[in-house]
Amino acid sequence: MKYLFEILSLLGAIGLFLYGMKLMSKTLQRLAGENLRKSLSVFTSNKTNSIFSGLFLTGAIQYSSVVITMVVGFVSAGLLSVKKSIGIVFGANIGTTLKVWIISLIGLKVELGVLALPIIGICLPLMFSKNQKRKLWGEFAIGIAILFLGIDFMKYTLSELYQSQALIKFLSNYADGSMFSILLFVGVGILVTAIVQSSSATITLTLVMASGGWITFETAAALVLGENIGTTITANIAAIVANTNGKRVAMAHTLFNVIGVIWALIFFKWFLLGIDKIMVSFSEPSPFTTAASIPIALSILHTAFNTINTLLFIPFIPSLVKLTEFIFPEGKNSKKSKKMNLALSELSIIDAKNDILQFAIKSRKMFQIVPQLLVEKNETIFAELLNKIRILEDESDNKELELTNYLTNISHSELSLKGLETVKTMLRITSEIENISDSCYQMAKNIDSKNKQKIWFTQDLRDNLKLMFDLVGKSMDLMISNLEGDYDKVSLNDAKLYELEINKLRNTLIEDHLKETDTGQYNFHSGVFYTSLISNCERAGDFIFNVNESIQGIK
Length: 555
What we know:
Layout: H1 2-32, H2 34-42, H3 47-61, H4 64-76, H5 82-95, H6 97-107, H7 112-123, H8 132-161, H9 165-174, H10 179-196, H11 199-211, H12 217-230, H13 232-238, H14 244-266, H15 268-281, H16 294-313, H17 317-327, H18 345-375, H19 379-411, H20 417-452, H21 459-484, H22 493-518, H23 524-552
Helix pairs in contact: 1-8, 2-3, 3-4, 3-5, 4-5, 4-13, 4-14, 5-14, 5-16, 6-11, 6-16, 7-8, 8-11, 10-12, 11-12, 12-14, 12-16, 13-14, 14-16, 14-17, 15-16, 18-19, 18-20, 18-21, 19-20, 20-23, 21-22, 21-23, 22-23
């Protein structure tokens, strides 16, 4: 019963550690905000930049599993290629070593758990500050306090558990440094990390056990290697709903760590001896003989393993891509995937931005069909075009609903103030694009109704409508260009000119038509359809301008 209580206490300590880490990660995301989103577009131009991008992202949010899960989602959404994403995965593996160093140098050597409650007491008033940044820094400090409080509880509960005769017997029988023992603890590291879903928590647990002298340097090193494999489970679980490319990225992460652990096991003794020499050269006690030196030695091992592994894999990224393509060949779900939770709310905005762009491109396709309907005389082809625009309208309705739900979910998660404003603007843009699609469909129905009533336009009327269609089409192309580029660099000058020209042309065409109708040049029924098409086309121009105006408003 006593040991059951200690085990539950250990689980509670791990829970505290994970909660503190999550709170830190959440606040860092919101503080970094826009910089997180820009990092992907700026730092993924080549292999080296991709690696630094992964390192930066993981350093910024201190959660490599979240970064890699996000990358799987981006690849699945078509925002990143598999090749570029692999570089980010490599960088994320290196970036996660920073936390291990912090815990080894500060968390285990300094009794920060004693300071945890005073830190929380000092920072608590910041939580109620009206200043958003001050409030976030308060949350961040409290996250650190809870994290180190968790480490202190781990130390205490593990010291109690180590008094168990069964545990002492197990460690004496199996932690003997033999190859069987090493492989056994690699397996334990994989299993525990897969269950906890956090390599940071299990590595911290390993550091605590090693610093207390409960496990040897060899056993601790084996656990760390296993934990590097166990952490890949998270991305593979996320990839279940991803398309083929998303699954390839998750598999690349697994292969990277598994192959790395294989070479590390082959050179295991020499690897540890090399780390021992580094420690001794800096006048530090040997980790083979001094338990207090093991956490630093494990930090060196963790960093060296991920850095060397990355350097070894860089020339073979194309081969790794081909291997993942062999494991996951092109199939029915190569392009399809459910909308994934990209784990990072700020970075989910990039996914939404791409979806909005595709939505706008689809509305442009709808608009291109309208002039074709106006001049098409073949009834079969006309029916096919009309059916195509109906299908696009249905898809547009569904896309608006999907995007609205997705953006609403993002808005309810952790976002910076800038991110929240961006999401709100994206919701407006989504609604305006749907209005454009509705206008296109309304024009298509008008043309169909006109044809059914055997009402025809003269060549002059068709030429006038073509002028309007061409002008609105150019405005639409500008809108798509603005949606595709950097929102911060969008200028309204050209959009305003198009809007003025469209309104001016609408007024001119309707005024001229009314004059010609008064003279009896055109019949009343054709005039109704003609003015309706002009009005709907101009209304589409208004919606287009609203989109451009909304984009420009995101500063």
